[in-house]
Amino acid sequence: MSLGRWWPRRADGLPPGQRLLTEMPRFSDAPMRWAPAVPEHPTLTVRHGEHTVSLPLDAIDELDRIEIVADFHCVTTWSVRDLRWSGVRVRDVLRRHLGDERPTPFARVHAGDGAIARYVIDDLLSDDVLLATQLNGEPLTLRHGAPLRLVCPGQYGYKNAKHVTEIEFCDSEPDSAYGGKEHLRGRVAREERHGRLPNWVVRWPYRLAVPITARLADRALAQKPNGHSFS
């Protein structure tokens, strides 16, 4: 596989600092980590104070489904245009199963591959934030986050957690699993790319890592999972 296919290239109409890819790679902060096996009966755990509920994926699919078409922007400066996601709004899932209880100011989303992303609650409950089960009209595959992926079009890719297993609501700002490099908001329009460093410092180091990271993530995807929750 040529690494050139994963080199982001200039294109009109992209947000600040972004470059275009023509296809969506599997991408990860830990590219050699295998994708988790999809459980026979996938569930989503929602924790809100002392209230914990485990939702079968079938129960989530019973909610009103919506479809959005949105560009995807990775913090490492690559973008893919016009991805078609189908799923249910996060806020609809919470309203159905937690009622009108007032949300906490923050949340964390846990993934089956061990990743954790944190959010300001207003970002997570936006109109276009989905728990997606389909991409471009087809069921999600392991490459892009099966069986359930969080889709937050207004935020960088590290807020779009793959293989989602749990949403946890927090009264105080949670620690970041990514350390200082994770911006709490990660909003693309404001180029909130890094938690501490200015954008001009990180753009080129991030971009240079894109081809090899995409290649390594592809290799890891082809390996056999070991049966643990992540590896």
Entry keywords:
231 residues, 6-stranded mixed sheet, 5-stranded mixed sheet, 11 strands, 18% helix
Which consecutive residue ranges, at least 5 long each, have pLDDT under 50? 226-231
Structural class: alpha+beta
Largest sheet: 6 strands, mixed
Q: Helix amount, in percent?
A: 10-25%
Structure annotation, total helices: 4
Q: Report the radius of gyration as a whole number of Å.
A: 17 Å
Q: What string, H for helix and E for strand, traces the elements in order?
A: EEEHEEHEEHEEEEH
What is the averaged pLDDT score? 91
Strand content: 25-35%
**First and last CA, distance:** 24 Å
Note the overall shape: globular
Beta strands, count: 11
Descriptive report:
With about 230 residues, this protein is of the alpha+beta class. It contains 4 helices and 11 strands, in the order βββαββαββαββββα. The strands form 2 sheets. Strands 1, 4, 5, 8, 9 and 10 form a 6-stranded mixed sheet that branches. A 5-stranded mixed sheet has the order 3-2-11-6-7. A hairpin with a 4-residue loop joins β6 and β7. It is globular, with a radius of gyration of 17 Å. It starts with 18 loop residues before the first strand and ends in a 9-residue tail after the last helix. About 35% of the residues are buried. The C terminus is likely disordered.
